Amino acid sequence: MAKEKEQKYGAEQISVLEGLEPVRRRPGMYIGTTGIDGLHHLVWEIFDNSRDEAMGGYCDEIEVVVLPGDIIRVTDNGRGIPTDIHPKTKVSALETVMTTLHAGGKFGGENSGYKVSGGLHGVGASVVNALSLYTKAEVHHDGGKFMQEYTQGKKKAAVKKVGSSKAHGTVITFQPDPEIFKEGVVFDYDTIVNRFRQQAYLVKKLRIRVTDARKYEGKINTDDVVYFSELNLEVPSTTFYFEGGLVSLVKYTTRLQKSLSNKIFYVEKDQDNVGVEIALRYVDDMTDKIIPFANNIYTPEGGTHVTGFKTALTRLLNTYSKKNNVLKETEGGFTGEDVLEGLVVVVSVKLPEIQFEGQTKAKLGSMEAQGAVATVFGEAFSAFLEENPDEAKVIMNKAILALKARKAAKAAKDSILRKGALEGMTLPGKLADCQSKSAAESEIFIVEGDSAGGTAKMGRDRKTQAILPLRGKILNVERARLDRMLGSEQIKNLVIAMGTSIGDTFDLEKIRYHKIIIATDADVDGAHITTLLLTLFYRYFRQVIDAGYLYIAQPPLYKIKKGKQISYAYTDEERIKLAGEGDVEIENLEDGVVEEVEETEEDVKKKANKVHIQRYKGLGEMNAEELWETTMDPAHRMIKKVNVDDAEEANKIFDILMGSEVPPRKSFIQSNAKLAEIDI
After folding, report:
1. 251 and 233, same structural domain?
2. What backbone torsions phi and psi does residue 66 show, to the nearest 5 degrees?
3. Residue 481: its pLDDT value, please?
């Protein structure tokens, strides 16, 4: 081995990042991502500081405003961040909180400013400041108004008193830095509203007002008002205030579903210095919905509090079934999957010293929460079942139905999806597979009908592209259990073709294609088939969506021939642009008629300039060459990747549109009918 050139490595090679520079260098370490989720995380962090004031009983009103330019303003009527000189940093406490990592009122045990808090380990305000192009902190307390401004986390000047004030509280205004959030700084109002609706349920008697002022045309001057609402501008605004707490949240979450139990179970109790609060009810659904919180922070990945709840629920219902001879010995016992089916539950814990797994607080790691939740819930729910035999019977029947369905599904899988089929040895006869065995370069087109399937098979790249035609509309899985699903030939063929299996034996590593492309006709039936397939993937193959493997093809709507030149348009606007000026002949192949033909003597002379437009209604109307050029050629096609930005909202929409309850679907259609684009 050749001797490498020696490189000096000493103390001078060790980098020391000062102040908030580490945050700007590695923002993902502090907010998870610099994408849309990380952008909104900035709002959550500033809000959490105000919410912690409310949890301590010092605040009962919080206002969040999205100003023009996607600038965020958060106001509370709490105590206000202290502005006196900090004994250690020798500068204002406000400046310390805004510019120093791990500085805040959430440390120090009994001497801290908060008994319970959910802030980002004391780095929330400073991280937001570091990742913002501009930040302004205003504090109202002790009869004065104090202010400090910052650029990318660095102060512009010292904290100064800028006036007198009878109010008390904190106002934080910040503009996220586009250098950090390169995907764009555009806040989603619905995401913000949904987040704070949730928070209003968690803190009883806290008023939260959310306002979207981005489209206000005039100049907005907020310097002379504490609350934005004082300006009395006509802008979209939503206010939340709930006294029912978690019970109200369960009612809201299940408002579109058929409830199986009349009563909502609720318990609130302290156990071993851990506050436990749980509300639940069962609904007529085949999925569960667990909404967990730790110190009022939503923990989508669960954690110890959820583990404690699931363990206690499974043990408790098995004990109850044995005591009351609910199950036969041959049926065995309930699994966690059985007792969770149809359950909607909110699990909230509050701890003085909280530990999250990861900086973004998606999962609770505090072990004491597990035992506290199991004890509090176990005792209270056991009493609930004994005192409410009718409710207990409904819950038992639901769990028994889930148990039987689970066993039927296993039997169906064992008989239908044999081991050879799962490994791709016995692929469906209708599948025209690709030659490549590499999932990374392989893709499968799920097409509508044999006609389109035949054309696609002729036009494809056989090396990397597989074709699976579907006959008609597949089963609506929102209304079917797994055993019935596997009795559907169409779904069975798709599952075998993908190679992942389904249910508890699903394995993403065995997927045979890294692009699964839904290609249906551009009509109502095609849209319905796409919706049915999306429902299937969302409910049973969510990991395929999360991995970025599911796509929807975007075939052209028009073929435009102008003289000898041929082009394709994917929208009506593009058709108008490509067709240009002059006479237009539109041919609709589905109807076999010419919808519009304007021809004069002068037109005959200028036949070469005639624009001929062919309207495609289905993929089968294209020949193999056209289908390849427009829809299948990776170099020129348009395909849309399917993702779930808001799983909760997606779940609600699938429940409304594909579920068994008719009234919510009717209401949705009536409310949104004017938004529909109808192709006549």
Report:
1. no
2. -100, 110
3. 75
CA–chain centroid gap for 594, Å, is 45
| Residue 559 confidence (pLDDT) | 87
Q: Is residue 287 one of the residues assigned to a domain?
A: yes
Residues 294 and 401 in one domain: yes
| Selected catalytic residue, list 525, 585, 603, 646 | 525
Task: With both helix axes pointing from N to C terminus, report the angle between 189-202 and 647-658 in degrees, rounded to the nearest 10.
Answer: 90
CA distances from 479 to 123, 403, 412, 476 (A): 46, 17, 18, 6
Task: Based on the fold, state whether residues 323 and 364 are members of the same structural domain.
Answer: yes
Predicted pLDDT at 308: 97
Cα dihedral across residues 401, 402, 403, 409: positive or negative: positive
pTM for this entry: 0.65
Summarize the chain as % helix, strand, coil (round to 5): 40, 20, 40
Cα–Cα distances in Å, from 221 out to 72, 234, 515, 651? 14, 15, 50, 40
Please indicate, yes or no, whether residues 214 and 259 belong to a single structural domain of this protein.
no
**What pLDDT does 237 receive?**
95
Instruction: Mark whether 102 and 134 lie in a shared domain.
Output: yes
The 10 Å Cβ neighbour count of residue 371 is: 16
CB 324 within 8 A of CB 385: no
Of 70, 489, 523, 585, catalytic: 523
State the DSSP string of 484-509. HHTT-HHHHHHHHHH----GGG--GG
* From 521, 587, 626, 655, the catalytic residue: 521
Cα–Cα distance for residue pair 366/368, rounded to 1 Å: 6
Report the CATH number that the domain containing residue 142 is assigned in CATH.
3.30.565.10
Listed residues 536, 554, 572: the one ending a domain: 554
Q: How many CA atoms lie within 13 A of 19 on its CB side?
A: 14
Which residues, 6+ apart, have CB-to-CB distance to 74 below 8 Å?
43, 46, 47, 50, 62, 63, 64, 65, 171, 172, 173
Residues 6+ apart with CB under 8 A from 640: 551, 552, 554
One domain for residues 45 and 181: yes
Residue 630, domain member (yes or no): no
| pLDDT for residue 14 | 39
Task: Pick the last residue of a domain from 413, 432, 449.
Answer: 413
Show the domain range for 567: 559-614
Q: Which of 640, 650, 538, 545 is nearest to 191 (CA)?
A: 650
What's the domain count of the chain?
A: 5
Same domain? 227 vs 283: no
**Largest Cα–Cα separation, the chain:** 94
Residue 461: inside a domain: yes
Looking at the structure, do residues 207 and 101 belong to the same domain, yes or no?
A: yes
Question: Cα–Cα distance between 223 and 245 in angstroms, integer?
Answer: 35
Active site residue 448: yes
- Residue pair 89/97 in contact (Cβ under 8 Å)? The answer is no
Verify whether residue 601 is a known catalytic residue. Answer: no
Tokens matching residue 33: 């991502």
Known catalytic residue at 483 = no
Output the domain CATH number for residue 447. Answer: 3.40.50.670
pLDDT at 44: 93
The residues of the chain scoring below 50 in pLDDT are 1-5, 9-17, 106-111, 119-122, 417-425, 589-595, 597, 680
Q: Edge-to-edge, what's the strand order for the sheet holding 558-562?
A: 565-569, 558-562, 611-615, 584-588, 593-596
The yes-or-no answer on residue 331 being catalytic is: no
From the candidates 448, 621, 626, 655, which is the catalytic residue? 448
Q: Is residue 184 part of a domain?
A: yes
- DSSP reduced 3-state for 575: helix
Residue 302 sits at φ, ψ, to 5 deg, of 75, -130
